[in-house]
Amino acid sequence: MASSAIAFQQANCSAERTSKSFNLGQLKTSLSTAFKPFLKKIQQVPLRIDLPSSIKNTSVSIVDAFVDLVFEFVDQPVLPSQANFAPVDEIGEAVKISIIEGKIPDSFPEGVYIRNGPNPLFGGFKSTLSIFGRSSHIWVEGEGMLHALYFTKEDGDGNWTISYRNKHVETETFELEKRRNKPSFIPTVEGDSPAILSAYFFNWLRFGKVNKLISNTNVFKHAGKLYSVAENDLPQEVDIFLLKTLCDWDVNGAWNRPFTSHPKTAPGTGELVVVGADAKRPFLVLGVISADGKELIHKVDLKFNRCSLCHENGITENYNVIIDWGLSIDINRVVKGGPLMRYDKEGCARIGVMPRYGNADSIRWFKVKANCTFHIFNCFEDGDEVIVRGCRALQSIIPGPDFGLNKFEWFSKGFENRNSTDKTEGSSAKTAEFFTHAYEWRLNIKNGDVVERSLTGDEFSMDFPMINEQFTGYRNKYGYSQLVDSTASSTSGMAKYGGIAKLYFDEPDIHAFTGRYDEVVRVEYHMFPKATFCSGAAFVPKGGGLEDDGWIITYVHHEDTNISQVSHCLSQKPMMHVQFMVILSLKKTK
Fold first, then answer.
1. Which residues make Cβ contacts (< 8 Å) with residue 514, sequence separation at least 6?
2. What is the pLDDT of residues 305-352, one digit of tens each?
3. DSSP secondary structure string, 46-101?
4. Is the pLDDT at 262 greater than 50, yes or no?
């Protein structure tokens, strides 16, 4: 999922066209046959292909001329209610922030708060129209942009210097399109199957890659270095102070496939556990990287029979936790006329528990109720059980509705408030399917039993969970998440987060009317002012204190005033409240 963030304490830093008519059905059939050899070939070789320079020099200009003639790039529509998702310009050098509301506490650590998210080039997302049909980007695409806020304490006087910098993640394909100064990669994820197949073909011919490398989903740290990542490629190492992209990280040549967006640092050892999904076999591979980031010390094919889009993996003291839901990528499905990416509500839903250095045969699989879970709070061991806590919904917001359906209506219904809709999981109603509960799975390693329950009720939908990362893999008492404003999200057809929740996992909720304990856990809610929404929230521990002794820091945007801020909330008791706000001024890309 797009838009994630991390907070580092300083110690951790280092020409208009005439319309054309054609029979799309006939074209789909003929293209499916024509492209089968190409698709078979493309699944046998790495998707990162380096063509000989002689072939590039003699063929690219001819193919480019054909693409320019046949394909028309057009802007994808954006509603006024989605304006705060528009891309912004790079500001160049870092700027000092002079407007601060409230007071930064003396105990707040020096460091940098960085958010990553989609920021498409050339003013926004594009679609292409051609004789092959239409293909489009989906909302999670777009080149990654890093937004960094630097906190430095001035000597002895308690004053702070705060500066802000933003910069695109300069992947290989980003640099390519910047040099060309125009959209060049044909969208490949959504559209008519002939259009997608032709996009794969022409992108590959011209660039040696079938799609763009976006690096727009998360930032993570390992061995004192900062990395930007998305699921379609290797991570990029980034200079934490200048936000300059340094290189792709392939662990000294040992890792040649994408990373999941949320790898995990193993408790005790400091090793990094990662999974990587690919559209060709092997579909899912798990790796363990040494604590110093120099060596891939374990790598195993998990023997999946399809490409399951694994957005996050979990970890405990002794186990790796593998999340396998019904969201898949299948090139052969496109050849047959279907979508590249699809979520199957009735399909596979299971969680795998695997010893840290095990193989595919060592995985204990637990079948669970059908669901879609992109993000997890934490995993830990409790006797014979492995506990997994995450944010669970009934439908995937990726990739969107079947091509040709009303996209806005589909998203709008999905974001409706669950309190006003049919709450039965088996209901045929299509409303509120994106409503996300905090959820728990208890997986018994000894007897194979599964116990699952919702940890939260229907007051608010929540996602993008976080904890004090010092407790990753260990039993923890507290969790935090962003709260979905269901009304605003349904109105705009895009997820908008209007607050922050604090969850007390060890404390049952007390019913407001009966005084009895409910099955859900206690939750505190901090809501932002009207038409104010957050993204990229992160927990900053105080250090040396209790688990919940720290702060939540997040970017917020006021839609009525078009002002962006960074909001800082005190996490520990009493109830969360804002301590200070940093005011930013960002220019929207024209």
1. none
2. 999 998 999 999 999 999 999 999 999 999 999 999 999 988 889 999
3. -SS----HHHHHHHHHHHHHHHHHH-EEEEPP--GGGGGGS-B----S-EE---EE
4. yes
Peptide bond into 399 cis (omega under 30): yes
b (16+ CB within 10 A) / e for 217-242? bbbbbbeebbbbbbbbbbbbbbebee
Instruction: Return d(Cα 210, Cα 192) in angstroms, integer.
Output: 16
Distance of alpha carbon 267 from the chain centroid: 23
**Pair of tokens at residue 344:** 């199957």
Q: SS3 of 457, please?
A: coil
Output the six-digit token pair for 292: 């110093």
Rounded to a whole number of angstroms, the CA Rg of the chain reads 24
Supply the pLDDT for residue 13: 36
Which of 25-29, 70-74, 276-280 bottoms out in mean pLDDT, i.e. has the lowest? 25-29
Q: Would you state the pLDDT for residue 543?
A: 77
Distance CA 173, CA 182 (A): 12
Backbone angles phi, psi at 148, to 5 degrees: -120, 135
Phi then psi dihedrals of residue 209, to 5 deg: -140, 145
CB 542 within 8 A of CB 473: no
| Burial zone of 165 (CB within 10 Å; 0-12 exposed, 13-18 middle, 19+ buried) | buried
Listed in sequence order, the residues at least 6 apart from 204 whose beta carbon sits closer than 8 Å to its beta carbon are: 42, 49, 210
Structure tokens at 490: 């349904």
- Check residues 579 and 177 and name the one with the higher pLDDT: 177
Look at residues 20, 2, 39 and name the one whose alpha carbon lies nearest to residue 144.
2
Q: 506 — alpha (psi -120 to 50), left (phi > 0) or beta? A: alpha
- In angstroms, how far is CA 44 from the centroid of its own chain? 27
The tokens for 372 are 């879609």
As beta bridge partners, residue 393 has 372
Q: For the whole model, what pTM was predicted? A: 0.88
108 Cα distance to chain centroid? 28
User: Would you say 198 and 132 are in contact if contact means Cβ atoms under 8 Å apart?
Assistant: yes
- Whether omega before 77 lies within 30 degrees of 0, making that bond cis, reads no
Q: What percent of the chain has pLDDT over 90?
A: 70
pLDDT given at position 429: 42
Measured from the Cβ of residue 159, the count of other Cβ atoms closer than 10 Å reads 10
CB atoms within 10 A of CB 161: 12
Q: How far apart are CA 384 and CA 378, in angstroms?
A: 17
pLDDT at 423 over 70: no
Identify the helix (H) or strand (E) that includes residue 265.
strand 264-265
Q: Where are the beta strands (DSSP E) in 177-263?
A: 190-191, 218-222, 225-229, 236-238, 245-248
Residue 194 CA, chain-centre distance (Å), reads: 28
In angstroms, the CA 62 to CA 436 distance is: 49
Residues 6+ apart with CB under 8 A from 540: 7, 9, 108, 109, 111, 113, 550, 551, 552, 553
- Between CA 371 and CA 129 the distance in angstroms is 35
pLDDT digits (tens, 9 = 90+) for 104-149: 888 889 999 999 999 999 999 999 999 999 999 999 999 999 999 9
